[in-house]
Design goal:
Chain lengths: 316, 505
């Protein structure tokens, strides 16, 4: 017996399918720069999203314990590799890419040096991708069914390639910002970096949720994330900017764990764990925002078919 | 009969702390110095001087029982026993960088640089602009010069010199030797040869018996740290520039200035420290914005024998060299983390994180301890073998700028509002402690702290979750889609099971 014969719940709505409307193959930039859809979306407001994110995380022992375990294990691993701290950088270790990617960059260069650090960064990318995939998958399950289950981990495997791609893309964005900033003059560096952080979350913030709930290719997932972000009246840019500013502020303010050392105090641990939960709340909020409007996200525009070349020299 | 005092004088000058970081090798090692704990023996306030009163005094050097420091416009001799000012010798206003003590014709001589070239940072505030630059006691200048209003020396030449005077008589040894640019390196002496670098990159070797320039070599890039002499080789750290982005260590033959080898940094460093050396190996710190390293270089071949990376910037003033002893090489970064390395392999033996800024004050090795002075004004002693902190001074408002060992005294140069010299001696009644570095993992503490913090955070969060779950309904009105995955995966499992059953005979 298979589950195919299961009775669907009342009000079942088939997931949005691209088969009906999508035709021609398109590039990711076509999706990103597609014209805005007129009219306001039903994207939840930012406070509502965060409130729902908080409820999602706090009601799931799986997510809460995962956050605590990941922060603790990552710190132990860093110390084993020779990190001297400060521990305070761990506040952004569960950050949504590229906020988390920036943390990876700093840590890998700090622990392994400039040259080896870029190679070690590959390891950091994979670890971050696994963590983001698991947290997204669990958040989606809690949002949809009320609890995370073993299926969350299975689904995380499906998200993993997209999560890796998002991390790599965000890292590329940061590296580009690092090169472009100084070219524009002193003082622009920080501005460009902030723009890259906000832009990365704005455009790619929904990608892992899309990967968790829909079966799409890499380009289509990225494009759909960008199109969802650009839905009118969604406030996604504000959401991304608020998140980045808060993350930077939390990193910058003086707090326990800001000194060189590998034995953080209880207070330092508590702050890092609460910050980790904050990032998980943002992951859940992003998932909630996307799932709320998934049916409304426009499909990618189709490319006009190439015109056949006009015959030359004849029929004048 | 006359040979004995001369030999004694040479030994006296060369065994003590005669130059920046001890001797011509700048190893910073004083095994016979006082052990911790310390108590203050005396202090001598020395007001800041120079334009806008912004210059303190240089790192101290020791001539017998006299401590010698260079101020912006005078050289000060201090009695090591009492801490009283024994004498001063005026100099042309110039960067207050270390002098060196040489033994010339059986007498100790102070060798120093002076002059600000075309003009000091603020010529109007220059005391030497309006008065001759005399020797002690008052009028005759060792340099025989007076800085003119244009910064020249009154003879129309560029005002930058190397000069020397006898410690006992304070009379000049020879007519000052003109340099082509201002010198900020300080002087290094090996026997009767003095080595000094000028800002633009020229290295001079000067015979102290007659003041003649034996050789000079143009290296073409800024020199900011004193040359080092070991195994008849002069080692110079050459800073990076816009066109030459890698700092370099250049080795010159001490006899004729011929270049023996040069070694560029292989990382992303911007500055190179003073070189420290023993008989076979040179040790140098390269420092950049993202990382730093301690490099060991074979003196004979110029090959890098090891490189040990550090995660943080080292002293950005580029003067603090590693400390070299028989057992280890020590370096302190700008955040006050002191590292001990195996001198043969570069393996890190220990590190100690002070979490206090260290600037310009090179650590020194004293009697099996490493002494580190901080910008906060206190200084600590670390056990050289274990790396544990064994003694800490009381904090003061005056940052530690440099340290030296004068016999049984540890001499500190302090800056800031309470600038001056302090001498510390061993305190037999002082208490020693044994404090491990915060960078040493403590598994018990780690587990306990994360356990407590984790339990509290998990508990409170889940309590909040219960409260929220009661108040809030389901997140999404339609949740049926979520079972699609389970259905699909279950389908796959079932299909495989069916196939397995069919395959069975």
């Amino acid at each position: 017996m298979t589950n195919k014969n299961k009775k669907r719940p009342t009000g079942y709505r088939a997931p949005a399918s691209t088969k009906e409307t999508t035709p021609a193959r398109k590039g990711i930039l076509d999706s990103v720069f597609a014209p805005r859809v007129p009219g306001a979306s039903s994207m939840p407001k930012i406070p509502t999203s965060l409130y729902r994110g908080l409820a999602t995380v706090a009601s799931s022992p799986g997510i809460v314990c995962t956050v605590v375990l990941v922060v603790a294990l990552e710190w132990f691993a860093l110390v084993a590799f020779g990190s001297q701290g400060p521990f305070a950088i761990m506040v952004n270790q569960l950050g949504v890419p590229p906020v988390g990617s920036y943390s990876d960059l700093t840590l890998s260069i700090g622990v392994f040096g400039v040259q080896t650090g870029f190679i070690a960064l590959l390891g950091f990318i994979v670890v971050r991708a696994v963590v983001i995939a698991v947290l997204t998958s669990m958040a989606v399950d809690v949002l949809q069914t009320g609890k995370a289950s073993r299926w969350s981990l299975v689904r995380a495997l499906r998200i993993l390639p997209i999560a890796v791609s998002v991390n790599v893309g965000c890292l590329g964005l940061l590296v580009m910002a690092n090169f472009i900033g100084p070219l524009l003059g002193s003082g622009f560096g920080l501005l460009i970096l902030m723009a890259a952080l906000v832009g990365g979350i704005y455009l790619l913030g929904f990608a892992t949720t899309i990967a968790a709930t829909e079966r799409r290719g890499l380009a289509e997932t990225m494009g759909r994330s960008a199109r969802a972000a650009r839905m009118p009246g969604s406030g996604n840019l504000t959401f991304a900017a608020l998140y980045v500013l808060t993350s930077v502020a939390v990193l910058a303010i003086p707090k326990p764990g800001s000194l060189v050392g590998v034995n953080p105090s209880i207070g330092a641990w508590a702050i890092a764990l609460v910050a980790g939960l904050g990032h998980a709340i943002v992951i859940a909020a992003l998932a909630f925002r996307y799932l709320s409007v998934a049916a409304e996200v426009p499909d990618a525009p189709t490319r006009a078919p190439k015109r056949a070349p006009k015959p030359r020299g004849r029929g004048r | 009969m006359t040979l004995v005092p001369a030999v004694f004088a040479i030994a006296q000058a060369q065994e003590g702390w005669t130059q920046f970081q001890g001797g011509p090798d700048h190893s910073g090692d004083a095994p016979g110095g006082p052990e911790p704990a310390y108590r203050m023996d005396w202090e001598l306030p020395i007001d800041l001087g120079g334009p806008d009163l912004q210059f303190g005094v240089s790192a101290p050097v020791v001539a017998g029982d006299t401590i010698v420091v260079v101020g912006p416009d005078q050289i000060i001799g201090v009695d090591a026993e009492s801490g009283s000012q024994a004498w001063t010798v005026d100099r042309d206003l110039g960067p207050p960088v270390s002098a060196a003590i040489a033994s010339v014709d059986g007498s100790d001589a102070v060798v120093y640089t002076e002059g600000f070239g075309d003009g000091p940072p603020d010529p109007d505030a220059s005391p030497s602009a309006s008065s001759p630059s005399p020797t002690a006691p008052a009028s005759a200048s060792p340099s025989g010069s007076a800085a003119g209003e244009d910064g020249a020396d009154g003879q129309g030449t560029f005002n930058s010199h190397l000069a020397a005077f006898d410690v006992r008589t304070r009379k000049p040894l020879f007519k000052p030797v003109p340099l082509d640019e201002v010198s900020r390196t300080g002087v290094t002496v090996d026997g009767t040869m003095a080595f000094v670098g000028a800002n633009g990159g020229r290295v001079y070797a000067i015979d102290l018996t007659d003041g003649s320039v034996v050789w000079n070599v143009e290296l073409g890039r800024p020199l900011t740290s004193p040359p080092t002499v070991a195994a008849d080789t002069v080692l110079v750290g050459v800073q990076s520039t816009q066109s030459s982005r890698l700092p370099t260590v250049v080795a010159l033959d001490a006899g004729d200035g011929e270049e023996a080898w040069r070694l560029d940094d292989q990382g992303a460093a911007a500055i190179v420290s003073t070189v420290a050396a023993n008989d076979t190996t040179a040790y140098v710190a390269f420092s950049g914005s993202q990382e730093a390293s301690i490099d060991a270089i074979d003196l004979a071949t110029g090959e890098r024998t090891w490189r040990s990376r550090l995660p943080r910037l080292l002293d950005p003033s580029a003067t603090a060299p590693p400390v070299v002893t028989d057992d280890a090489v020590y370096a302190t970064d700008a955040l006050g983390v002191t590292y001990a390395f195996d001198p043969d392999t570069g393996a890190r033996i220990w590190d100690f994180a002070l979490n206090q800024n260290v600037f310009r004050a090179a650590p020194i090795a004293v009697a099996d301890h490493v002494v580190v002075g901080t910008l906060d004004g206190d200084f600590v002693a670390l056990d050289a073998s274990s790396g544990e902190l064994v003694w800490r001074s009381e904090a003061t408002a005056a940052p530690v700028r440099a340290m030296a060992v004068a016999g049984e005294r540890l001499v500190l140069v302090r800056g800031g509002a309470d600038a001056g010299l302090q001498a510390y001696v061993h305190d037999p009644d002082g208490t020693l402690v044994s404090e491990p570095s915060p960078t040493t993992p403590d598994p018990g503490m780690l587990a306990l702290n994360v356990g407590i913090a984790g339990a509290v955070v998990i508990g409170l969060t889940l309590l909040l979750g219960r409260f929220l779950a009661k108040r809030m309904g389901p997140a999404l009105p339609d949740t049926a889609d979520s079972h699609e995955d389970e259905d699909e995966i279950s389908d796959d499992i079932d299909n495989h099971s069916d196939e397995d059953e069919r395959d069975q005979p």
